[in-house]
Amino acid sequence: MAEPRGLPRSFFARSVHKVAPDLIGATLLVDGVGGRIVEVEAYHHTDPAAHSFGGPTPRNAVMFGPPGYAYVYRSYGIHWCLNFVCEREGSASAVLIRALEPLEGLRRMRRRRGLADEHLLCSGPGRLCQALGVTVAHNGLALDRRPFALTGRDRRPEIAAGVRIGITKAMELPWRYGLKGSRFLSKPFR
DNA sequence: TATGAGATCAACT
DNA sequence: GTTGATCTCATAC
Fold this sequence. Notes:
- The protein is an alpha+beta fold.
- Helix content is 13%, strand content 27%.
- The protein has helices at residues 16-23, 106-113, 125-132, and strands spanning 27-30, 33-43, 70-75, 79-85, 94-104, 148-151, 159-162, 176-179.
- Strands 1, 2, 3, 4, 5, 6, 7 and 8 form an 8-stranded antiparallel β-sheet that branches.
- Helix 2 (106-113) crosses helix 3.
- The termini are far apart.
- The protein binds a DNA duplex through residues 41, 43, 49-51, 54, 57-59, 73-79, 81, 83, 96, 98, 124-127, 130, 164-168.
């Protein structure tokens, strides 16, 4: 039978470059609200654009802990961004969750976002966190326990790769992954 | 459709 | 004091 199973913590105990594309198509719920992951970005510790590049700080401490935990930080003073911590490979790495296809808890997402347009509910890291109610209170929580619920995909979808968005360092690295053809991407792949 | 400002916090120079 | 893994709204073409 095809009962989907929750992702074990060991799923994240691998290279961020394997975990990131494997997350495309998986389902993420936070307190029962969420949907299908359609866009992520990998941040490796050798990468000048990664928060962990310069070593541990109070903000990024969770990235230096064990894999399978949530790293949440404030972006531009306004938004929250959700990451999944992966294997350290010498130093910290994580996957930034950039966009979901909303499936569960549409009403709560709309209420939190104050919007009716389904396409804009979760298409972007800041929007996604607002819709799912993710804040710094989730920083450091395990991904295999409540309020998180992560479910693996049953089939490997067609995955697009491209350059990352909104960064000024290491802009050429093609470490953004997305569900090919999804209408819920924060930006189309070229 | 495209560009620009403002919001506002943690890290860094 | 400046910059950033962003988003929204306003104004211009």
